[in-house]
Design a protein that fits this description.
By secondary structure, the chain is α+β, with helices and mostly antiparallel strands. It has helices at residues 11-33, 50-59, 67-71, 73-77, 79-82, 123-142, 157-164, 210-214, 232-238, 248-251, 260-263, 283-286, 290-293, 298-304, 315-329, 335-341, 347-360, 363-371, 379-387, and strands at residues 38-42, 88-95, 113-114, 146-149, 168-169, 175-176, 184-191, 254-256. Among the domains are: 11-57 and 65-99 and 115-191, NADH Oxidase (3-Layer(aba) Sandwich); 289-386, no CATH class.
């Protein structure tokens, strides 16, 4: 709402406008005080194209095994479907930029590449804690209801962030900022308060295709469209089952997530490294050794990744990822650890150990190992043996 200085508002409208302005300024000040880099406002009706795009994404099966996306489609499509009383949505951006190009580790096959966002504390906890502080003070000041969300609720955060003017959704479908490039955590505050809304950001990708061409698995069927079934981030984090054997060699040493499309964006030249120490990379998570990670049992996994978002996928799925990296490493020194994991309690781990050993061992040695293997009851593990050329 823009008011010309030459226009005179009725007293009640002028008072309402001043209240909106004060509340909007208050929440911006609170956000800045808690370290948020961006804070802008949009409305619940600001993403009219989102339902159609979500429907297309689901119809194409691009959500893979993330059934919860279909189950929450109605609530995800519209903020008012999630909370009918919401009048304003405040979007927050928190910088988590790395100190260097995260792709440099891809040239070190004996090390595991962990996505930048997961190299320290779980950002859900860090950001949500800050948002709750803001929400408490704002609710007390405004006398209005509030709800805060950080990624775990059916909220279309990226379209809402674009509508609020934090940035725009690039061709890789992630949010891009002219001031922070690819590296922004998003959070939202829904409120019944009426706030001053900001203008949406426009698309500044132009003819650039850097992010699309950087993807090692060709996960983008077209600009602005992502097929999660080919996305390394989805496969190594969200996907619980076996990973397509054709894609495994393309994963390289990426053991949790992938930053290739984010890191390739030219807008990152304006980005700064994270300032919050809870989001700066732990030294032991910058370049963890594959041989060490293969030794982690459940207790060791939980201890090493205490406070990390990596812990949520569980030890078995994580070691599955590490075994793929081991198989891609060409490092015969990892054979002993892989042989141990071939007898692991987890079928997921046993199956991927077979794949890794097939790639690491000499043919005669692998044949000898296969001949001595005990009977296997799990069908997925037997399928790995079959693909390795070993009959049941």
């Amino acid at each position: 709402m823009r008011i010309s200085t030459s226009e005179a508002l009725p007293p009640h409208e002028d008072k309402a406008l001043r209240r909106r302005q004060k509340l909007t300024a208050f929440i911006r000040d609170e956000a800045a005080a808690l370290g948020f880099d961006l804070c802008r406002v949009t409305g619940p009706d600001s993403i009219p194209k989102a339902p159609e795009r979500l429907q297309s994404f689901l119809e194409d099966g691009h959500h893979g095994t993330m059934a919860w996306m279909a189950e929450t489609q109605a609530r995800r499509s519209s903020p008012k479907a999630l909370w009918s009383e919401v009048r304003s949505i405040v979007m927050f951006g928190f910088n988590y930029g790395p100190d260097e190009d995260p792709r440099s580790i891809l040239q070190k096959p004996d090390k595991g590449a962990i996505s930048v966002y997961a190299r320290n504390r779980d950002y859900h906890d860090v950001i949500k804690g800050k948002l709750k502080e803001i929400a408490t003070r704002f609710a007390a000041r405004a006398g209005e209801d509030v709800k805060v969300f950080v990624d775990t609720a059916p909220v279309m955060e990226k379209p809402l962030a674009e509508a609020a003017g934090l940035g725009w959704q690039g061709k890789h479908t992630n949010l891009l900022s002219r001031s922070h490039g690819s590296w922004l955590f998003l959070g939202s505050l829904f409120t019944t308060a009426d706030l001053i809304q900001d203008e949406p950001e426009t698309d500044h990708c132009g003819s650039c295709r850097a992010c699309l061409e950087a993807c090692p698995t060709a996960a983008f069927p077209a600009p602005y469209r992502l097929d999660a079934r080919r996305c390394i981030s989805y496969l190594t984090i969200e996907h619980k089952g076996t990973i397509d054997p054709a894609i495994r060699p393309l994963i390289g040493n990426r053991i949790y997530g992938c930053d290739d499309c984010l890191a390739a964006c030219p807008w990152n030249k304006f980005a700064a490294s994270a300032s919050d120490m809870k989001l700066k990379a732990r030294e032991d998570l910058k370049e963890p050794a594959i041989d060490f990670l293969l030794t982690l049992d459940d207790t060791g996994f939980r201890s090493f990744f205490s406070g990390s978002p990596i812990k949520r996928i569980g030890r078995d799925r994580f070691v599955r990822n590490v075994l793929i990296a081991a198989g891609n490493s060409g490092d015969a020194r990892l054979i002993a650890a892989c042989l141990t994991l071939a007898a692991d309690m987890s079928p997921t781990v046993r199956g991927m150990a077979v794949w890794a050993l097939k790639r690491l061992m000499l043919p005669d040695a692998f044949a000898q190992f296969a001949a001595s293997r005990p009977a296997e009851e799990d069908p997925e593990v037997n399928e790995e043996w079959r693909m390795a050329g070993v009959a049941e």
